UniProtKB/TrEMBL annotation:
Residues 224-322 form the HTH araC/xylS-type domain. The keyword Transcription applies. The keyword Transcription regulation applies. Keywords: DNA-binding, Transcription, Transcription regulation. Transmembrane segments: none annotated. This is Helix-turn-helix domain-containing protein. It holds the Pfam family DJ-1_PfpI. Gene3D superfamilies: 3.40.50.880, Homeodomain-like (1.10.10.60). InterPro entries: Class_I_gatase-like (IPR029062), DJ-1/PfpI (IPR002818), Homeodomain-like_sf (IPR009057), HTH_AraC (IPR018060), HTH_AraC-typ_CS (IPR018062), INH-QAR (IPR052158).
Length: 365
């Protein structure tokens, strides 16, 4: 399990404090075998969060929480221009010396730069503070765009959406782009709260806790060829025997391999592929439900609605309407008429209607 330690200084914005738990927790909840432990560690002098809606919080970890962390995150805070406490500097230096990576969000880059660890390296901070950081720390090459910047073990970003972009960047490094994209979709399309478990111990789909996992094959898995073949033939009524034959395995051996690598049986994985394809078609096209049911291999609109409801907690029509309403609220007004799905380009994240460019999320600090 990868340990993420968030070092919170006094006056940290609340959304930057909670964003790592939301992002890494979502990745782990929906993807087998992703596993993260997120620790919120109080820097010396920490009392509570800052604006716009400050609140107090009781943290059980101090700087010692960084001692065995794989990743240390530095959110912004109100006193970012001040010299960081010596204990925090020592903990950060020790983490880097033993091979941990460090991420800074927004004005958290000022704190990281104050340790001298960024001297001679590229970094990003909030856009309105790029000139200030460049003047204060001339040995740091400050990226004026404020996108996610990686230089050695150091990763920094402008702080868009409370550092979610930086967290998705780190998830990509850990588990591949497919997991990051699906995690972003889960984060962005929170249509309503769904209980993690029912009273009988089953997951939201009623098929057991593993049913919440998305259909993602871990990088390097031997299942890659067969899952790619399944995805290319979703329009066909694939059977377990046919899948096993294509994989060159017996049914029992195939099932064991799928459970070990994806947390799902082959048929559960196939169903999740079909639902995920339906999501993308609802996001990117105006195809009617009847056509989407055919393209995804779910057959009839009734069958599509049934499985879509069990997997996502909402209907296809509601999903499409909610997605477009959400997208229109976070895209540039002059381009908001072009609604589409997530695509990644370089280190940034964009949304577009399939091929070509589409509306980009706001990237101001």
């Amino acid at each position: 399990m990868s340990v993420i330690a968030v070092l919170a200084h006094d006056g940290v914005p609340g959304h930057q404090l909670t964003a790592p738990g939301l992002a890494f927790g979502t990745a782990a909840r929906h993807h087998h075998p992703v596993a993260y432990e997120v620790r919120i560690c109080a820097a010396p002098g920490f009392r509570g969060t800052g604006g716009p809606a400050p609140f107090g919080v009781d943290l059980t970890w101090g700087p010692e929480g960084l001692d065995d962390a794989d990743t240390v995150l530095l959110p912004g805070h109100t006193g970012f221009r001040d010299a960081p406490p010596p204990e925090a500097v020592a903990a950060l230096r020790a983490a880097v010396e033993r091979g941990a990576r460090v991420g800074a969000v927004g004005t958290g880059t000022f704190t990281l730069a104050a340790t001298g660890l960024l001297d001679g390296r590229r970094a990003a901070t909030s856009r309105r503070h790029t000139c200030e950081l460049a003047a204060l720390r001339p040995r740091v090459d400050v990226d004026p765009e404020g996108r996610v910047v990686a230089d050695g073990p150091f990763h920094s970003a402008a702080g868009v959406l409370g550092g979610i972009d930086l967290c998705l960047h780190l998830i990509t490094l850990d588990h591949g782009e497919a997991v990051a994209i699906e995690t972003e979709r889960q984060l962005f399309l929170q249509l309503h709260d769904r209980p993690e478990e029912h009273g009988d111990g089953t997951g939201p789909q009623g098929d057991g806790p593993e049913a919440a996992y998305n259909a993602i094959t871990p990088p390097g898995s031997s299942l890659g060829p067969v899952t790619a073949w399944m995805e290319a033939h979703l329009h066909r009524p694939l059977t377990l025997t046919e899948i096993a034959a294509h994989a060159g395995l017996g049914v029992r051996a195939l099932t064991r391999r799928f459970r070990a690598d994806t947390g799902l049986t082959p048929l559960q994985y196939l169903l999740r592929l079909r639902v995920q394809r339906a999501q993308r078609l609802l996001e990117r096209t105006d195809d009617p439900v009847e056509r989407i049911a055919t393209h995804t291999g779910l057959g009839t609109p009734a069958n599509l609605r049934h499985h879509f409801q069990r997997s996502t907690g909402t209907s296809p029509t509601t999903y499409r309407a909610a997605f477009r309403a959400l997208v229109s609220g976070v895209t540039w007004p002059e381009r908001a008429e072009r609604v589409g799905a997530f695509t990644r380009t370089g280190t940034g994240t964009e949304m577009g209607p399939g091929p070509g460019s589409g509306p980009r999320r706001h990237s101001s600090s």
